[in-house]
Amino acid sequence: MKGTVSLRGDKSIAHRAVMLASVAEGTTRLRNFPPHEDAAATLHAFRSLGVTITRRKDTVIIKGRGLSRLHAPRGPLFVNESGTTLRLLLGILAGQPFKVSLHAAASLSRRPMLRVIQPLRAMGVNLSGRRCGKEECAPITIEGGPVRALRYRMPVASAQVKSAVLFAGLYARGTTRVIEPAATRDHTERMLGLFGAGISRQGRTIDLRGPCRLTSPGTITIPGDISSAAFLIVAAILLPGSRIQIKTVSLNPSRIGILAVLARMGARAAITVRQKGGAEPWGDITVQAGALHGVTIQKKEIPSLIDELPALMVAACCASGISTLKGVEELRVKETDRIRSMTENLAKMGGRLAVVRRKRSEDIVIRGAGGLRGAAVSSFGDHRTAMAMIVAGMAASGRTSIDDIGCISKSFPDFLKVLKPLMVK
Predict the structure, then answer these.
(1) Which residue among 202, 236, 356, 380 has the highest number of C-beta atoms inside a 10 angstrom radius?
(2) Do both 266 and 302 map to the same domain?
(3) CA nearest 315: which of 371, 272, 364?
(4) How far is 357 from 249, CA to CA, in rounded Å?
(5) Whole-model pTM above 0.90?
(6) Which 8-state DSSP code applies to residue 293?
(7) DSSP letters for 132-160
(8) Cα 183 to Cα 177: distance, rounded to the nearest angstrom
(9) Mind listing the pLDDT tens digit for each residue in 289-333?
(10) What is the pLDDT of residues 262-282, one digit of tens each?
(11) Distance of alpha carbon 99 from the chain centroid
(12) Domain with 200 in it: what CATH number?
């Protein structure tokens, strides 16, 4: 792989920018807006709630309605497979004066939602999900109204749950406090500050003073998605003779755990910071091929690289020595069970992986053999599994076939279009 590439906007940042721009006062322009299905689900939801949103190529223009001035939709809101849209939207709807049901596509409808429903109920929000065993799942019905401030100590580190509680706190009188068990991505805190909310952070404690009046900052440029970049980075490291540069990518400290792990594995990567201030730091990443060795990833690191773990598992299989990924049980409740999808696929390609289960956590132990061999594998309908297996197939000896890669459109629809020009015969 050789060359330079710029990526579409970061998915996590795009979701939050649309939501806050919709309930702010004034017009917001979002540049480098991503084209994938998840972002489209958020745009669709807020259009259905009465927000005027127009799109001109990669720029989205949003005319904000103010904090409590969304309109009741004509019917249920469909969020497709976007878990971020579903969970964060519950926080925004908490203070709206109407009742609405949120529906999801098949995979997302099986994912657990009590983790976000319970704290919102504690804030006085009336909402209920479909019973699924001991859990509640989509569809979820929410009736907005008065919201109480909450002091919430999160049992599980989750940026989405944290964000939903903070969004609901926008409507509450007093201070809403969220205490994280481990630091998660902080895009919500940064974006709330950019829109003028009274938010502060000390260690793992975040305070939001409500009720808030949000004001548009005007134009927001969304940096490239580091989670998408991860697959290109790992591919370049594993393919001999490679050197690529990824420009204007997000360098948010809460999201670049993969770069720290790869550095410990011996990867040759250089970071050039282009912007430190503003809503989000961004810059360029230059990476070269090189040999990797095993590494231990601690549980406290997982929140900063949860979406990149499939790519790291491929890297660990191609490294020398043993890699241990601790506390990765959250992978069970992604778009698919990624512990299953990745271990089964990589085992077919000659990877040596073991899952170690404890009472409340799971580890993955990978004995790197320095390479993989081609095989017939499955995407399991999961975008990150699909991209990880494409990278594995590129690095493997022999031919690899993947049953379905249409799911990649969820987060990186032009993945192959970006990848192919970088390939050198």
Answers:
(1) 236
(2) yes
(3) 371
(4) 36
(5) yes
(6) B
(7) ETTEEEEEEEEE----B--EEE-SS--HH
(8) 14
(9) 999 999 999 999 999 999 999 999 999 999 999 999 999 999 998
(10) 999 999 999 999 988 668 999
(11) 28
(12) 3.65.10.10
